Amino acid sequence: MLLAQVIETSAQVAATSSRNAKTALLAGTLRETAAGGEGRELEVVADYLAGTLPQRRVGVSWRGLQDLPEPAAEPSWTVPELDARETSCCSFFAFTVDGTDHDVTLDI
User: Fold this and answer.
1) Which of these, 14, 7, 26, lies nearest to 95 by C-alpha position?
2) Comparing C-alpha atoms, which of 108, 10, 98 is closest to residue 59?
3) Rounded to whole angstroms, how far apart are CA atoms 80 and 86?
4) Contacts of 30 (CB under 8 A, 6+ apart)
5) Residue 22 contacts by C-beta under 8 Å, 6 or more apart in sequence?
6) Both ends of the chain: CA-CA distance in Å?
7) Which carries the bigger pLDDT value, residue 20 or residue 101?
8) What pLDDT score was predicted for residue 40?
9) CB-CB neighbours of 73 under 10 Å
10) Residues 63, 55: contact at Cβ < 8 Å?
């Protein structure tokens, strides 16, 4: 599953006050992940949607933010790719998701 799909679900959940709609959105994303997911992808997606990071430790330095790459033209990161990167290296990121009716922003 693309990380962008998880972010979109999170933004949609935040944008509605309907408990039924929130449940349907979360269940749909988790069902889709379970159907096509690999390894621990379902666990990681559930963590992200719950607002927690599986790595438990979050941190980033100002120096590390000075030379950011240009944003991708199209979403390409998958949840397993991000999880593997964050659990196998010493780089930790803080994620902030901001959504409106027309777009979703992921600040890393």
Assistant:
1) 7
2) 108
3) 10
4) 42, 45, 46, 49
5) 13, 16
6) 19
7) 20
8) 86
9) 6
10) no
| Residue 78 φ then ψ, to 5° | -100, 160
**Among the ranges given (7-16, 21-30, 47-56), the one the predictor scored with the smallest mean pLDDT:** 47-56
Is 48 exposed, middle or buried, given 0-12, 13-18 or 19+ CB atoms closer than 10 A?
Answer: buried
What pLDDT band is residue 107 in, cutting at 50, 70 and 90? Answer: low
Q: How many whole angstroms separate alpha carbon 54 and alpha carbon 88?
A: 12
- Residue 39 · residue 31 · CB < 8 Å: no
Per-residue 3-state assignment (H helix, E strand, C coil) for the chain: CEHHHHHHHHHHHHHCCCHHHHHHHHHHHHHHHHHHCCCCHHHHHHHHHHCCCCCCCCCCCCHHHCCCCCCCCCCCCEHHHHHHHHHHCCCCCCCEEEECCCCEEEEC
- What pLDDT shows up at residue 46? 92
pLDDT at residue number 23: 96
